[in-house]
Amino acid sequence: MWWEVPCQVPAEVQRENTRVAFDYVPILIQILVAFAIAIGVIVISNFVGSKRPTAAKLAPYECGMTPVGQAWRRFPIKFFLTAMLFVLFDVEVIFFVPWTVILRHLRVGGTDYVLFALGEMAVFAGFLLLGYVYVWKKRALEWEA
Amino acid sequence: MMFVLPTLEWWTIAPVVILTLTGCLVLVVDLFRGDDASPEPLAWLTTGGLAIAIGTSVSLWGYEAQAAFSGMVVADNYTQYFTVLFLVIVGVTVLLSFDQLTKEDFHPGEFYSLIVFSAVGMVLMASAADLIMVFVGLELLSICLYILTGFSRRRLESEEASIKYLLLGAFASGFLLYGIALVYGSTGSTNLGCVARAINPASTFAMFGCGTGSVAGAATSGLLLAGVAMLVVGLGFKAAVVPFHMWAPDVYEGAPTAITAYMSVGAKAAAFAAIVRVFMIAFPTLSHDWSMILAILAAVTMIVGNTAAVSQQSIKRMLAYSSIAHAGYILVAVVAASQVGIASLLFYTVGYTVMNLGAFMVVILLGRRSEDHLLISDYAGLSRRHPVLAGLMALFMLSLAGIPPTVGFVGKFYIFTAAVQADYAWLAVIGLLSSVISVYYYLRVVYQMYMVDPVAGVEPVTPLRWVTVAAGVAGFAVVALGVFPHGVLALASASSTFIR
C-alpha cells in the first residue's frame, strides 16, 4: 500500500508497519485532547475564575525578569545553568527511544542479545547517573544556593 | 541483514576503559570530600590510574593488529606507542600543575578528571580506524582542553584564551565533520580501510575492519578531494599548522603554564597520530594529490613559525611559535609518506615531547607565583641565580634548535633524510634553512641567561623538588636519546609496520 515504509526492518516489524497510518491515530487523538484541554482551561477560567489585577500581574511574563529595558545587562547564571542541565539530560534521554524500539528484536541467528543490550544501557545510564550525582552534590539544582 | 552486532574485544581498548573509570572515580571521590581538602590524594589517584593504563598498554605491545568494535578502533603497536607517550605526558602534566593548582584555587576534582578524559580522547585518536572515531576522539580532547585553558579563572587572559580556542576550535571541527561527510558521500564508508578500498580496489588494509561497507573502486574524485582538503583543515588546526595556527600563540599564552605544556606536546602528537592514520591508510593512493599540498603547508609552517618566534618578548609566546615550527618539521615526515618517514615522525614526537616539556618545566619553576617572570628578559643572569636550571634550559634550547649531540638534532636528521629519500630535497633544504633562523631565538634565551647582568627585582625562587628532578630527567633524556637513539627508533620502526 502507499503508506508502507520502504526500509529494511525485521519481518515481524514489517507486518506491524503495514498499518502504519492507522498507528498514528492515537497521536491524532492525543493532539485533539491536548488542544481541548488548553482551550477549555482558558475558556473556563475566564468564566469561573476571580480577577484581582495588579500592575505586576498584568505585565507580560518573562521568566522572572523585567520585560522592558536594556537587554545588555547581567542576569543570574542560574538561568543559564538550568538551561544547560535541561539540554544535557534531555538529549541523553533521546538515546533511550531508539533503544526501546529495537530491544525486542535483538535476535541474530537464534542468539539472544537482549541481555547484552540491557547491559549496554546500564553502562550508559550509569554514566548518566554519575553526572546527575555530580550536579546534585555541586548544588546546581538548588535555586537559592 | 538487520543488525550487525559489534564483536567486543575489550582488551583492545583496555587502557581507554581504565582511564575512563579513573576519571569517573576522581570525580566521585572529590564530590564526597570537603571543599578545602588537599588535592594530593586526587593527584595520587590520577597517577595510579595512569600507571595502570600505561602498564596495560605496554602489555598489549607486540600483538598482531586487531580491529575491534565493528572496525571502529584498531589495536596495534602504533596505538600502544602513542598511548604510552600520551599517558606519560599526562602524568608529567599532573606533576607540573600541582603547585599552581594549590595556589590558584583550581577545582582539583574537575581538573584531574578533565585531564584524564582528554587523555581518553588522545588515545582514541591514535587507535581510530574510522573517521567517526577520529572525530569523537578529537572532540573529547578539544572540549576538555577548552575548559582546561580557562582554568585560571581569576586571570582575564586565561578566559579570553578559552573563548578564542572554543570558537575557532568549533569552526575547525565543522570543517573536519564536513570533510568526513564528503568522504562518506563519495566512498560509501567512514572506515579507513573501506575508504582505501573504495579508492583503490587492490588496497590491502582489510585489517582495519572493512567488511562489506563500501563498493570497491566506487569513489568519485572531485567530491573526495574536497573532503580530503577539509580533513587537512580540521586536523591541521589541531596540530597548529600554518595557516591554521592563529589561535596557538594567544591560547598558549593565556592558558595555565602546565596546560600550555600539555597542549603543545600532547594535543599536537594526537593530531599527528590521527593525520598519519587517515592519510596513510585511507588515502595512500591519492598521495599525488595531497603530498604537494602538505609539502607546501609544511614549508610555510616552518618558515612562518620560525620567523614569527624571533620577535617575541614572552617566553610562552616564543615557545608557542616554536611549537608551530616543530609542527612543520613533523609534517615533513608525513609528506615523506614512507615507513621510514613515519618511523622518524614517531621518533621526533618523543624527542620533541622530552625537550619541550623540559623547557616548560624550567618556565614553571621560575614563574610560579601565578604566572610571572614570563618575559625572556626575566631570564637575564639566571646562570648566577640558578646555575643548574640555567644549564638545563640551555640544553633544552640547544636541543629545540637541533644542535648535536641532543635528540633535537637526531630527530631532524631522520626526518630530513626521509624527505630526501622521498624526492623532497627542496623541503629538507627549507627545513634546514628555517632551523638556522630558529637558532637565533633559542640562543637569545641562552644569551640572556649567561651574558646579561640580572635585572633588579627578580628574586631567586625556591625550586620545587619534584619538578626539578623531572627537569633533570628530561635533560638526561635529551642527551641520552641524542647519543643512543636506537632503542626508541627500533620501537618507532616496529610501530610503523602498518605502512607499506
Molecular structure report:
The complex is a heterodimer of chains A (145) and B (500). With 145 residues, chain A is mostly helical. Chain A has helices spanning 11-17, 20-23, 25-48, 55-58, 77-94, 96-103, 114-137; strands spanning 107-108, 111-112. Chain A folds into two domains: 9-51; 70-145. Chain A has a two-stranded antiparallel sheet with strand order 1-2. Chain A starts with 10 loop residues before the first helix and ends in an 8-residue tail after the last helix. Chain B has a two-stranded antiparallel sheet with strand order 1-2. Chain B has a domain at 284-500. The chains are: A mainly alpha (145), B mainly alpha (500). Chain A binds chain B through residues 8-10, 102, 105-106, 108, 113, 116, 127, 130, 133-134, 137-138, and chain B through 1-3, 5, 24, 27-28, 31-32.
Task: Briefly say what this structure is.
The complex is a heterodimer of chains A (145) and B (500). Chain A contains 7 helices and 2 strands.
The largest sheet of chain A is:
2 strands, antiparallel
Residues in β-strands, percent of chain A: under 5%
Q: Helical element count of chain B?
A: 19
Please, what is the oligomeric state?
heterodimer
Layout: helices, strands, pairs:
The complex is a heterodimer of chains A (145) and B (500).
Chain A: H1 11-17, H2 20-23, H3 25-48, H4 55-58, H5 77-94, H6 96-103, E1 107-108, E2 111-112, H7 114-137
Antiparallel strand pairs in A: 1-2
Chain B: H1 14-31, H2 40-59, E1 66-68, E2 73-75, H3 77-103, H4 108-127, H5 131-149, H6 156-187, H7 192-199, H8 221-238, H9 247-254, H10 257-282, H11 287-310, H12 315-336, H13 339-366, H14 382-385, H15 387-401, H16 407-421, H17 425-451, H18 465-483, H19 486-495
Antiparallel strand pairs in B: 1-2
Helix pairs in contact in B: 1-2, 1-4, 2-3, 2-4, 3-4, 3-10, 3-13, 3-19, 4-5, 4-10, 5-6, 5-10, 6-8, 6-9, 7-10, 8-10, 9-10, 9-12, 10-12, 10-13, 11-12, 11-17, 12-13, 12-16, 12-17, 13-15, 13-16, 13-18, 13-19, 15-17, 15-18, 16-17, 16-18
